[in-house]
Amino acid sequence: MRLSGKKIILGITGGIAAYKTCGLIRLMVKSGADVKAVLTPNASNFITETTLRTLTKNPVYIRQFDEFEWKPEHVSLSDEADLFIIAPASANTIGKIANGISDNLLTSLITVFDKPVIIAPAMNCKMWENKFVQENLSKLINSGFHIVEPEQGELACGYEGAGRLADINKIYEKICEVIEQEKFLKGKRILVTAGGTKEPIDPVRYIGNKSSGKMGLAIADAAYSFGAEVCLVSTFKTQKPYKTIETPTAEQMQRVIPEKFHGSDALIMAAAVSDYRAREVARHKIKKDSGEMSIELIKNPDILDEIAGIKSSSQLVIGFCAETENLEQNALGKLEKKNLDFIVANDVSREDAGFESDYNAVTIIDRETRQLQTTPRLPKTEIAKIILKRVFSNYDVPAKNL
User: Fold this and answer.
1) In the predicted model, is pLDDT for residue 294 greater than 60?
2) Which residues contact 308 (CB under 8 A, 6 or more apart)?
3) Which of 43, 156, 265, 390 is most open to solvent, judged by the fewest CB atoms within 10 Å of its CB?
4) Catalytic residue positions?
């Protein structure tokens, strides 16, 4: 049984799709899981406690401060559980979680839960498309939450569009996938870079690029969740539960990377390092009335070239390349030139993925096997997992030969 011995909290929010969770509970219990249901106050308008108690063989939790329900078990619910899934997740609850609001038992538990969380939204199609709802979802995605997006179809409100709770079997498979993700990187020391470097011209201006650092952050977060000892070298300041080093410029990054690489099993170079910098940086802001601005550029150090010279046979180096044309050809050229083990290429001319987006679609090329894997457009958090699995365990990743 795929979920044997696993403890799962099932959060249910107020929505007509709540009745579908009965089928999800059956699948989880049949697979060996110990399921405990936590409802928002409005959820009980759509599904009864008696039904949930019967299916889960456990108490049902709703009222945060009810004397009858407030037992030590409540406090330990989040500590005991291996996974927290909210299905259906309303726009209201998604907004509360994304903004740290804990005004009921479900949102209070999710605030202290530090293990995998799956969100399966269900709502009116216009609510789903609302920019604030999408911003809240982006916050959750960037925090490592797993999202099972709603499906297209006829909605209970009479509208047609995206908003239906995903198929129960699809949600169940996602639960199994997350649970089955063992700490397969435990014992690995992984160095990750993120962001676009900013090469100063004067105290105000700089030479940069459109890289947001979201892909590198997603890789570092995923590696950490898979058990790796992670060191993130980023061009911006960020707080993470693993070691982070801020290096805004290429030269600063160059001073850090070789030193940290010596003790690492792998370097994942997701940062977009500027090729050029100003030969001289003005001490004061250059005024427009001082004439035409002329900046002499010089090449930045090539960090991957340096790493290629010190890399041992037991270390892996994974590079990235952002292209607007001839994706595979340019990626293969960089793979060979930089002595990389893998290269991850993406087409940054796409408007729906890549730079500054929460989504990406990449092509991963393995130098040793000469295999290529192309992903569909997915959240960068999911792309990060695909990359790590491809590089370090090489499982469940269909590929084709070049």
Assistant:
1) yes
2) 317, 338, 339, 340
3) 156
4) 157
- Tell me the mean pLDDT in the region 144-156: 86
- Would you say residue 71 has pLDDT above 60? no
Whole-number Cα distances in Å, 341 to 289, 337, 348, 380: 50, 11, 22, 21
**Rg of the chain on CA atoms, in Å:** 24
CB atoms within 10 A of CB 211: 24
In this structure, the strands spanning 359-360 and 400-401 are unpaired
Residue 6 predicted with pLDDT over 70: yes
Q: Which residues contact 165 (CB under 8 A, 6 or more apart)?
A: 17, 20, 87, 88, 120, 121, 122, 150, 151, 171
Cβ-Cβ contacts under 8 Å for 39 (sequence gap 6 or more): 11, 12, 13, 47, 49, 52, 60, 61, 62, 106
Q: Cβ neighbours of residue 337 under 8 Å, at least 6 residues apart? A: none
Q: Reduce the DSSP state of residue 331 to 3 states and report it.
A: helix
| Pairwise pLDDT comparison (293 vs 313), residue with the higher score | 313
Cα–Cα distance measured from residue 293 to residue 287, given in angstroms and rounded to the nearest whole number: 9
Angle between helices 72-80 and 105-112 (to 10 degrees): 50
Q: pTM score, two decimals?
A: 0.63
Whether 193 contacts 270, CB under 8 Å: yes
- Alpha carbon of 355 to those of 145, 281, 321, 347: distances in Å? 21, 27, 12, 10
Other C-beta atoms within 10 Å of 241: how many? 10
Rounded distance, CA 187 to CA 180, Å? Answer: 18
Q: Which amino acid is at 84?
A: F
Domains of the chain, start order: 7-180 (3.40.50.1950), 189-401 (3.40.50.10300)
Instruction: Retrieve residue 386's tokens.
Output: 């695909």
Q: What is the distance between the alpha carbons of residues 393 and 388, in angstroms, rounded to a whole number?
A: 8
Q: With a cut of 80, say whether residue 269 has pLDDT above it.
A: yes
Q: What is the mean pLDDT of residues 111-119?
A: 90
Average pLDDT score over the chain: 89
Residues in the chain, total: 402
Lookup: tokens for 326: 């001839």
Q: Are strands 151-154 and 160-164 parallel, antiparallel or unpaired?
A: antiparallel
